[in-house]
Amino acid sequence: MSTTHDNNPAAKLELDGKTYELPIIEGTEGERAIDISRLRPDSGYITLDEGYGNTGSCKSSITFIDGEKGILRYRGIPIDELAEKSTFVEAAFLLIYGHLPNRTELRNWSDSLAEHQMVHENMRFHFEGFPVTAHPMAILSSMINASSCYYPGLMTGQNPTRFDVQASRLISQVRTIAAFSYRKSRGLPTIYPKKAYKYTANFLHMMFSMPYEDYEMDPAAVRALDLVFMLHADHEQNCSTATVRTVASSKANLFASAAAGVCALWGPLHGGANQAVLEMLQAIHDEGDDGSKFIQAAKNKTRRLMGFGHRVYKNYDPRAKIIKKTCDDLLEKLSISDPLLDIAKRLEEAAIHDEYFVERKLYPNVDFYSGIIMRAVGIPLEMFTVIFAIGRMPGWIANYKEIMESPDSRICRPRQIYTGKEINSYIPLDQRA
Ligand code: SDX
Questions:
Q1: Does residue 314's CB lie within 6 angstroms of at least one atom of ligand 1?
Q2: Distance 168 CA to ligand 1 centre (A)
Q3: What pLDDT score does 393 carry?
Q4: 310 annotated active-site
């Protein structure tokens, strides 16, 4: 490694007989990057990195992951400490505003979430338009954008007060929209939120209460779901968060950016994995397989062991460890014995000792056990990824705020290497084959 003219560390690149010095920057935890922002104007070359496995898109102070050591921290606080001592609402404030709220801030934050939890009454007409078979992620992404149509004043221009209202409205309403879409899919009457309930309890109330009787809240179930939300709250530049930042980089509004994040999260390789894990476990159970046939299929690459592997974690996902323990405790507390949990444990045990998975550093990720908790709480399978979206909303909002406030941010516009046809001419219709 050399140094630049101003004595900062630099990488040296030899290209076509010329030498280029590329500045090296170092993050808080010692991770280092080669800054290539001058590469093309100086050398004419670009870099290529399908899936951006080796490419940093930004500098961020929100979340830190060490994939080799299995570390995850929100604003520097380890996830296991937050899981033990905090709540989803408090962690959401921490991610968005960068510090743990004091008593007044926490009360104002909770009051703001309560104040903005109702969607505009005319949104009901949008719900009526969806077929009962509509996937809740389709409803969620469209209703987030639809919801912004009722606050035109909120969507134009940015200022701190306007952002605060947008943020609390989005975090609060994503839960209301999710519950309403579930009730619609079951032909059930809409249940409105209650001020008496806190965030996660209110979600369960809107999901499962009836006009004639309130859902019986089991504190263990409420705590377990609140933890699932918190553990999903942010995760550096994952596919959906990178999508939110890309949309935000064009100066689109927060609701449009979040709606795009929902769409990216939907994919089975990302947030859709929790639903795919349960479908995999159910298929293994229905085939009477003890998991060994499925493991072999995964090794033959005819199946994927959903809930396993991660682009960053090359060690156990710290969230999976916390969720697995929460899962055990909840099922014991609710006296539920779930055969799918037994299969999951057998699969994990087999895979973490199998050379194929060990050499590829494939461990359980956050999605491997989260579905078992959601199933125990009564969340239907098609709502699993919606739960992930509710949890991830604070992370998306925090990243939106960060890119909007960054003086260095530019519109995201990657380059490409063209591999199509060389120049050719237009062929009139009567001369085509
Ligand atoms: C989330 O980015 C984030 O932070 C995401 C997330 C978040 O909080 O936002 O953590 C949430 O999305 C977790 C991941 C949920 N997805 C799944 O559980 C789906 C199953 N996992 C995989 O499809 C895969 O592991 C990914 C998508 C998660 C990561 O894919 P990569 O990094 O592109 O790895 P790869 O596909 O290049 O695989 C490398 C090797 C390949 O084998 P070889 O070609 O080297 O022989 O590992 C194999 C893959 O075939 N492999 C798997 C596997 N995952 C990778 N083989 C079997 N089962 C798997 N699950």
A1: no
A2: 33
A3: 98
A4: yes
Instruction: Tell me how far apart the alpha carbons of residues 307 and 357 are, in angstroms, rounded to a whole number.
Output: 13
What DSSP character marks residue 85? Answer: H
**Ligand 1 in reach of 366 Cβ (< 6 A):** yes
- Distance (Å) from CA 304 to ligand 1 centroid: 9
pLDDT tens-digit profile of 185-195? Answer: 899 999 999 98
Instruction: State whether the Cα torsion 104-106-111-116 is positive or negative.
Output: positive
Give the pLDDT score at 3: 67
**Token representation of residue 158:** 């940015």
380/254 Cα distance (integer angstroms): 28
C-alpha 234 – ligand 1 centre gap (Å):
18
> Which residue in the list 310, 328, 342, 408 is annotated as catalytic?
310
Please report the pLDDT score of residue 1 as a whole number: 61
φ, ψ for residue 136 (rounded to 5)? -55, -25
Least Cα distance to 11 among 28, 31, 36 occurs for 36
Q: Tell me the CA–centroid distance for residue 414 and ligand 1, in Å.
A: 23
Distance CA 358, CA 355 (A): 5
Please check the confidence at residue 184 and state whether its pLDDT lies above 80. Answer: yes
- Give which of 60, 49, 66, 63 is closest to 25, Cα–Cα: 60
Measured in degrees and rounded to the nearest 5, phi and psi for residue 14 equal -100, 120
* pLDDT, tens digit, 9 for 90 and up, residues 117-175: 998 999 989 988 999 899 999 999 999 999 999 888 777 767 888 899 999 999 999 99
The predicted model gives 17-36 an average pLDDT of: 97
Q: Determine what percent of the chain is predicted with pLDDT higher than 90.
A: 88
Q: Is the CB of 320 inside a 6 Å radius of any atom of ligand 1?
A: no
Ligand 1 pocket test target in 57, 311, 352, 385 with most atoms within 8 Å of CB: 311
Specify the pLDDT at position 161: 85
Mutation choice for ligand 1 from 73, 270, 321, 387, CB with most ligand atoms inside 8 A: 270
- Is 367 a catalytic site residue? yes
261-272: burial string, b at 16+ Cβ within 10 Å, e else = bbebbbebebbb
Nearest to 364 by CA among 325, 314, 327: 314
CA of 292 to the centre of ligand 1 (A): 20
Catalytic position from the list 226, 234, 317, 367? 367
